[in-house]
Amino acid sequence: MPQRCVTLGARKGSPHLAFCQGVGRLGLDVECLLVARENEGGAEIHAMADRRYADLASRLNVEPLRGFRQLERGSIDILAVDMAPDDEDLEDVIERWLSRVSERGVVLIPGINRREPGCVAHDHFTKLQAAYRSLTFHQGDGLGVLLVGEQLPELLETLASRWNVPAAARTVREVFARLGRACVDQALADAQTARLHSVKERLETVEQERLDRVALLAQLQTQIKERDEDLASLESDKLHLAEENADSQRTIQTLQVELGQLRAELAEKDSACQKAEQRCRELETTMIERDALIAEKDANIQTRFQELATMTNIAEEADRQQDYFKRKAETYNQRNEDKKAELKQFRRTYAKLQRELDTRSEEASSFKAKIEKLEQELEKRDKSLADRFDELGSLTAVLEERERELADLKDEGSSQVVRASKFFGARPHGIRLKTTNRKDQERKRRKQKEALAELEASEWFDSLWYLKQYPDIASNTRYSTNPALHYLKFGGFEGRDPSPYFDSAGYLEAYPDVAMTEINPLLHFIRDGIKEGRSPRP
C-alpha cells in the first residue's frame, strides 16, 4: 500500500482528484499531495478535492521546480507529472523529483505520444527508459510509467516481467482502453437518464397545473350559477314592484276622475252655496279627507318610485358583475386551452425523446459490433506494429547518434564563421545570421560554459570528492565524466556539497536573497559572496 501520492502541476482532469477518490473508496491511510501555485489552477483543484476529501488532500503552494526541497528523500510512492508536454521545465522537474521517489515508487509521465516541435515529454521519457524499467500506454496523448524503485509490489513486478511479451502488453492496454470506453458510455447513459427524468418531472408539473385550473374553473362556474340565481330573484322583485306601481297609477287615475267629478259638482252648486252651506261643509270635509288620502297616496307613490330606483341600480350592478364574471370565465377558458396545447407539445417532445433513445440504443448496438470488428483488426495491426517498433528503436538510436554528430559539426561551423567574419571585417557571401532563438540558445550555452569553467577552476569544487561522496552521480553515464555540470544544474539546489569546505544547503538557508535569485550557491559565492564577506559554511 502506498504511503504518499504526489501530483506535480494542476491541469484539467488532474490525477490528484483520482488519487483522492481511489484512496477514499478503498479506505487507505495515504496522503495525497498537490504541488502547484494558486495562479496556475492549484487553488481550484485543491478546493474541489477539499470539499470531498478534506482528511486526505493537502497542497504545497509552490512551483514544482522548487518544491522538491520540502520533502525528504525516498518519501514518495506514486509521482504523477501533470505538466504540459511542451513545458520547458519538464526535464529539470523530473530530474529533481526522482531523488524523492521511494524503493517502491513509480513515476507517471503523460503526453509521451506528443512529438510535435517543443514537446519534450517523449524525448525525456525515452532517455529515462534506458535507466529504468517502464510501461507505456498509447491511448490519447499516451502515458509512460517509470518503475523507479527496486522493491516494487508483487503485482507491478509481475506486470513488468510480462510486459516484454507483446501479447501480454497488448492485453493490458486493451483492458484499460475498454475501461475508459465503458466510463464514457456510462456517463452518456447517465446524462440521457437525467434528461428523461427531467422531462417526466416537467410533465407531472404541467398535469398538476391543469388539474388545479380545472378545479378553479369548476369553482368559478359555481359562483356564476349563484349569481344567476340572485339575478333571477332581483328580476322577480322588479316585476312585482312594477305591478304595484301600475296599481298605484290606476288608483291615482281613479282619484283624479273622482276629483274632477267633485269639482264639477262643486261648480254646479256654487250658485246654490248659500242654500246648501251644510252640504258645502260636508263636501269640504269630504274634500279634506280626500286630499289627505291623495297626499298619502302620493307619498306612497314617491316611496315606491325610490324603491324602484334602488332595485334598478341593484339590477344594473348585477348585470355588470355578470359581465365581469363572464369575461373572467372566458379568460380562464382560454388559459385552459393554452395549457392543453402545452401539454400536447410536452407529450410530443416526450415521444420524440423516446424515439431518440431507441435510435441511440440501436446505434450503440451497431457501434458495439463495429468495435468488435475493429478489435479484431487491431490485433492484426499490433502484430505488425511490434516488428515495426523494434525497427523504430534501432533507427531512433542511430538517429540520435547522427543528431549529436550534426550538432557538433554545427558548433564547429559557427565558430569558424565568426573567426572568418572578424578577419575579413564582413560576413562571407552565402552565410546568414541565425535566428533569435538560436542566438539565445548559444548565449545560454556560453554562459553555462563560463560558469562551468569558474567552478572547475575554483578551489572550492573537488571533482574526485564529489563523485566519491555521491555514488549515484558516479554511476550516471552522463554526469560521471563531468560532475561539475551536475552540480551546476542540480547538485547545488539539491543540497549536495561541492567539497568539504562549502555547505550548499546551509548557504541557501542562511542567505534567502541568494535562494530567491535561483543561482547556483557556489557560483554566487565565487562571484559575489567572497567580496561581500559571506561564509562558505554558515
Task: Tell me what you see in this structure.
There is one protein chain. With 538 residues, the chain is α/β, with parallel strands linked by helices. It has 3 domains: 4-164, Rossmann fold, CATH 3.40.50; 188-346; 436-529, no CATH class. It has helices at 15-26, 42-52, 90-98, 121-129, 154-162, 166-269, 277-424, 436-457, 463-469, 471-474, 483-491, 504-510, 512-517, 521-529; strands at residues 4-8, 31-35, 57-60, 76-81, 101-110, 133-137, 143-147. The protein has a 7-stranded mixed sheet, sandwiched between helices.
For this entry, give a set of tags:
538 residues, alpha/beta, Rossmann fold, 3 domains, seven-stranded mixed beta sheet, 7 strands
Largest sheet: 7 strands, mixed
Structural class: alpha/beta
Strand content: 5-15%
| Share in helix | 55-70%
CATH top level class name of the largest domain: Alpha Beta
Rg, Å, rounded:
52 Å
What is the string of SSEs from the N terminus onward?
Answer: EHEHEEHEHEEHHHHHHHHHH
What order do the strands of the largest sheet run in, or round the barrel if closed?
A: 3-2-1-4-5-7-6
Q: How many helical elements?
A: 14
User: Shape, please?
Assistant: elongated
What average pLDDT do the residues reach? 82
* CATH topology (fold) name of the largest domain: Rossmann fold
